[in-house]
Amino acid sequence: MRIVRFGRGTWGSVEGEVIRATRGPGGPSTGRTYRLHEVRLLPPARPTKIVCVGRNFRGHIREMGHDSLPQEPGLFLKAPNALAAPDEAIPYPAFTHLLHYEGELAAVIGRTMREVPEEAALDHVLGYTCTLDLTARDVQAKDLQWVRAKSADKFLPLGPWLATDLDPQDVWLRTYVNGELRQEGHTADMIFPVARILAYISSFMTLVPGDVVLTGTPEGVGELRPGDEVEVAVDGVGVLRVRIAPAVPG
Ligand code: MG
């Protein structure tokens, strides 16, 4: 099933070009239908927090200049203010001169998780989607913590919908900028698989329905410019597309 959120916050399931409205994500049908191309999609999650893994692909660890692999997942947070919708225009913030894309697979929690073992972790996932972990790379290097570098407004485009039937360790993840392939990674190459990440987080932090977990980016991160179009494609999910807003003539 593909779970979508649209309009003023209506949930639905996508079948081809048709959305069937539901009561809540994955809930019973309300009987109303919509055309996919006639609605405005929203991020398919209403998280209390977004937990992100910083280094989960060897190639990305190398390109960031680190030579040792992490022994356990290195986590940081984004806040819900960072969410942005599919097809949204993201303003290029004035505080950075080095805005980077990081295409990632995101898991959205469906059942409360507290001290859940790895073997049962994926049973608590509602679905998976595409995301862009936008990062102000210059500010990341100089600020004490990553709040501004990682969690500015609209630094977390998410969507276009949740795929419920997905093996999160068996998909290709690709990022395109202006149609050009920039990142290509397979989730089998994650250092920490999704189930281990979720179990690890739940060992000290309760995850509740709607919370979002980002699983790390493969190598090939790079710079965005005003006017760029970015696409994150995950096999079995679809394509998340956003634009960096063009520079305002000043
Ligand atoms: Mg990232």
Q: Can you tell me the CATH topology of the largest domain?
A: Fumarylacetoacetate hydrolase, domain 2
Number of strand elements: 20
SSE-based structural type: mainly beta
| Rounded Rg | 17 Å
| Portion in beta strands | 35-45%
CATH level 1 name of the largest domain:
Alpha Beta
Which superfamily, in CATH terms, is the homologous superfamily of the largest domain? Fumarylacetoacetase-like, C-terminal domain
Q: Could you tell me how far the N terminus lies from the C terminus, measured between alpha carbons in angstroms?
A: 46 Å
| Distinct ligands, ions and cofactors found in the model | magnesium ion
Shape: globular
Residue-averaged pLDDT, rounded?
96
Summarize the biggest pleated sheet. 12 strands, mixed
Query: Domains counted in the coordinates: how many?
Result: 2
Query: What is the helix tally?
Result: 5
What this model shows, in words?
The chain is mainly β and 250 residues long. The protein has 2 domains: 1-41, Roll (SH3 type barrels), CATH 2.30.30.370; 43-245, Fumarylacetoacetase-like, C-terminal domain (Fumarylacetoacetate hydrolase, domain 2, Alpha-Beta Complex). Helix content is 12%, strand content 38%. The chain contains 5 helices and 20 strands. β15 (172-177) and β16 form a beta hairpin. It is globular and about 55 Å long. The mean pLDDT is 96. It binds magnesium ion. Magnesium ion binds at residues 52, 102, 104, 133, 214, 216-217.
